[in-house]
Design a protein that fits this description.
By secondary structure, this protein is an alpha/beta fold. It contains 10 helices and 14 strands. The protein has a 7-stranded parallel sheet, with helices on both faces. Strands 12-9-14 form a 3-stranded mixed sheet. A two-stranded parallel sheet has the order 7-10.
Length: about 325
C-alpha cells in the first residue's frame, strides 16, 4: 500500500514510517523539517513541504497517489498554543484541511490521525474512556478536537474514513533502528530526567508534591513509542479491511508518578542526581490515565512494552548513544 506519512521525520512519525516500510509498504514522508530530522527518515524518501502550503501538498499527493495517510504533522506545545493560538489554528486545522482536500482529490480515502488526550481537558474520572466529555482547555487540544470532528463528518459523507488515536504520554526509543526522542526545546518528562542523570542539566524538577495521589506527584500513562507506532499500522489495516471509523485512546491503562519516573531513571542509569521540588504548574491534572479497552477489543492492539523500566531503559540507551540528539 502507498502510505503518506506527514510529520514522518519526527519522533513518533519516524518510528511509524520505519515500521510501515519494514512491513513492505511504499512510504513517502511529508515533513517541513522544522521539528523533524532528516536523519530519522532512515532512507525513506522525504518531500520537504509545509502542510500550510496547499498547492505543494496537492502536487505531492497527485504525484504519489497515496492509498492511505498517517497524519502526524502539527504543532504540539500546550504553552505555545496558549501564547500563539492563531498559529495553532493555522497549522493544525487549516493545514489539515489542505491535506484532506489534497488526499480526497488524489483518490485517498483512509487516514490515521494523531490526536491527543488533551481533547478531554480536565477529566472527570480515571481511567478515561472514549465516551467521556471532550472539553479541551487549551488551543492545542481545541485544534485537535476540531480536526477529529471534521474527520467524523467526512467519514459520514464517505469522503475519507479515519481512525483518530488519542495519545497519552509517548516515551522510549526504537533502539534497533536507532530512533529516539530529540526535541528542541524538550518538554517531556522522561528525556528531561535523563538529561539530569547525564549531567546535561543541573537537576530534575518535580512541579507539585501535594496532589491527591499516592506520593503527591502527578500520575501519567506512559506508552512505548514502538507500541504507539504499531497502533497506527493496525489502524490502517482496520480501515483497509472495512472497519468502522472512530476515536481510540492509546495508553497502557496504568499510571506512573513523577517520582516513579525519577526512580526508574536512577535505577536504569545507576546514577544519582539532584531533584528540585517546585510549585505546581497551572493546568496540570493530578491523574491522566487511559482506558485502552476499546483499542484492544476493536483493533487487537496489545502493548509489548508496558513496564516503566522497559520504556525508560530504551530511552536511556538512545540518549546515551546520542547525547546531542541526531545532530551529534
Amino acid at each position: 500500500m502507498r502510505v503518506l506519512v506527514t510529520g514522518g521525520a519526527g519522533y513518533i512519525g519516524s518510528v511509524t514510517s520505519n515500521i510501515l516500510s519494514g512491513a513492505g509498504h511504499d512510504v513517502l514522508i511529508l515533513d517541513d523539517l522544522s521539528k523533524g530530522h532528516r536523519e530519522a527518515a532512515r532512507g525513506i524518501p522525504i518531500e520537504q513541504i509545509d502542510i500550510e502550503d496547499r498547492e505543494a501538498v496537492e502536487a505531492c499527493c497527485r504525484r504519489f497517489e497515496p492509498e492511505a495517510c498517517v497524519h502526524f504533522a502539527a504543532r504540539s506545545l500546550v504553552g505555545e498554543s496558549v501564547a500563539q493560538p492563531l498559529m495553532y489554528f493555522r497549522t493544525n486545522v487549516q493545514g489539515t484541511i489542505n491535506l484532506v482536500g489534497a488526499l480526497v482529490g488524489a483518490g485517498c480515502r483512509l487516514m490515521v490521525f494523531s490526536s491527543t488526550a488533551a481533547v478531554y481537558g480536565e477529566p472527570l474520572r480515571s481511567p478515561i474512556v472514549e465516551t467521556d466529555p471532550t472539553e479541551p482547555i487549551n488551543p492545542y487540544g481545541i485544534t485537535k478536537l476540531a480536526v477529529e470532528r471534521m474527520l467524523s463528518e467526512l467519514s459520514r459523507s464517505g469522503d475519507l474514513r479515519h481512525v483518530s488515536l488519542r495519545y497519552f504520554n509517548a516515551a522510549g526509543a526504537d533502539t534497533e533502528a536507532g530512533l529516539g526522542e530529540d526535541h528542541d526545546p524538550e518538554t517531556h518528562l522522561i528525556p528531561k530526567v535523563i538529561a539530569s542523570a547525564q549531567g546535561r542539566v543541573p537537576h530534575a524538577s518535580i512541579f507539585g508534591t501535594d496532589y491527591p495521589t499516592p506520593d503527591g506527584t502527578c500520575v501519567r500513562d506512559y506508552i512505548h513509542v514502538l507500541d504507539l507506532a504499531r497502533a497506527h499500522v493496525l489502524g490502517i489495516e482496520h480501515l483497509a479491511g472495512g472497519g468502522e471509523a472512530g476515536a481510540f485512546n492509546l495508553g497502557n491503562g496504568e499510571g506512573f508518578s513523577v517520582r516513579d519516573v525519577i526512580s526508574a531513571v536512577k535505577d536504569v542509569s545507576g546514577r544519582d542526581f539532584p531533584v528540585a521540588e517546585e510549585p505546581r504548574r497551572e493546568g496540570d491534572p493530578p491523574v491522566l490515565v487511559a482506558s485502552s479497552e476499546r483499542i484492544r477489543s476493536v483493533l487487537g492492539w496489545v502493548p509489548s512494552f508496558p513496564g516503566l523500566e522497559e520504556i525508560v531503559g530504551s530511552a536511556w540507551q538512545w540518549h546515551e548513544a546520542h547525547p546531542a540528539g541526531y545532530s551529534g
